[in-house]
Design goal:
Blueprint: H1 4-12, H2 21-49, H3 68-97, H4 112-136, E1 140-144, H5 149-174, H6 177-186, H7 188-202, H8 211-231, H9 235-251, E2 268-272, H10 276-279, H11 289-305, H12 312-317, H13 334-343
Antiparallel strand pairs: 1-2
Helix pairs in contact: 2-3, 2-6, 3-5, 4-9, 4-11, 5-9, 6-7, 7-8, 8-9, 8-11
Length: 344
């Protein structure tokens, strides 16, 4: 392999004439950053044209009580993140693997609603198990935050939409195109291991993060990665993700990965006590052993349940078109070479 072109091709391209999975992950990360920057720039331009909307560019105050404007600000940021993830996924899926955005995970395949519904039930139940263990150990106590029906309805709606958007965004980033590129070239076990570690490390910057919370987040990455592998779509993984966070924040009023942003909307108000290695402390249940047990049990139950299988639609949709795109070719393709030769 002394030819520089052969060396370059070996470094960058795989046997299917596609960029190797690691390079595809980097390309996705680049487009994600570019899309996020573009959307922020467009938001600033829009706010300049319509000054009353300048508040959309402000940073949240971090206060315990969110104003209506701050809630709108949170949703605007969430929607920008989701849009950036969709744009990066669409470009990379089409450009690098010649497949559709829907094939990345949100195709309305047969059984998608069933996956979403069962996953939502399983995610909330897993979180309830973690909270139940901590409460039985005396590490968490509760009192009622509100009983007014209108407050509960409003809080439920806001929390549901917020965590659905956030869950879909994180799943597109962590179990979407990059994860699937690794699955295609390295296999499911390697993809789960690599992305789960990245998922855990990505939460280290969260408030009150600890080594224990990082381990649990890695376990959650395994749980969610397995959900994709069992269905080859993101409906189940997104359902597990959003419902776990929704139950933690709205039902039990506990910190979600260190954040207490929506506490004021909760039905109950959770108080974290000792021992912290069970309760998770200020990070919330995900920082303690109760969540470790719940994640392991839920992962095993999902794996052994026999409830989830990939649809034929998704198995067909995720197949790559092996034709080599001209813009990643580093040597002339055979058809073009033959055509040039004929013209000469």
């Amino acid at each position: 392999m002394s030819d520089p072109l052969d060396v370059a091709r070996y470094i960058f391209m795989n046997d299917e004439s596609e960029l190797r999975s690691g390079w595809r992950m980097l390309v996705f990360a680049l487009f994600l950053v570019l899309a996020a920057s573009l959307l922020m720039g467009l938001s600033k331009a829009f706010a300049t044209l319509f000054p009353p909307l300048n508040f959309l560019l402000a940073e949240p105050s971090g206060s315990e009580t969110l104003s209506r404007r701050e809630l709108i600000l949170l949703f605007a940021a969430n929607l920008r993140n989701l849009a950036a993830a969709l744009i990066a996924s669409a470009i990379c899926a089409r450009m690098l693997e010649r497949r559709s955005l829907a094939s990345v995970g949100f195709k309305l395949h047969r059984g998608w609603f069933r996956d979403l519904g069962l996953g939502s039930l399983m995610g909330a139940s897993a979180l309830a198990i973690a909270v139940g263990i901590a409460a039985a150990a005396g590490a968490i106590t509760f009192d009622v935050n509100t009983t007014r029906a209108e407050n509960l309805a409003l809080g439920c709606t806001i929390a549901l939409l917020f965590f659905l958007i956030a869950g879909a965004t994180e799943e597109l980033i962590f179990r979407g195109f990059p994860f699937q590129a690794l699955v295609h070239n390295l296999g499911g076990a390697a993809a789960v291991a690599i992305t789960s570690v990245i998922f855990g490390l990505a939460h280290l910057a969260n408030p009150s993060a600890t080594a224990f919370s990082t381990i649990n987040t890695i376990l959650a990455g395994v749980w969610l990665g397995l959900a994709y592998l069992m269905t080859r779509s993101l409906w189940l993984a997104t359902a597990l993700h959003w419902s776990w966070n929704f139950a933690m924040a709205f039902i039990f009023g506990l910190p979600v990965s260190g954040f207490t942003t929506l506490d004021q909307l909760a039905w109950l108000r959770g108080s974290i006590g000792s021992p912290l290695w069970i309760s998770g402390g200020n990070y919330g249940p995900e920082g303690g052993a109760a969540a470790t047990v719940a994640l392991i049990l839920s992962t095993a139950a999902m794996w052994k349940s026999g409830l989830f299988t990939p649809s034929e639609e998704m198995l067909g949709a995720i197949r790559h078109d092996r034709r080599e795109p001209a813009f990643v070719s580093i040597v002339p393709n055979e058809e073009q070479t033959a055509s040039d030769h004929y013209q000469d």
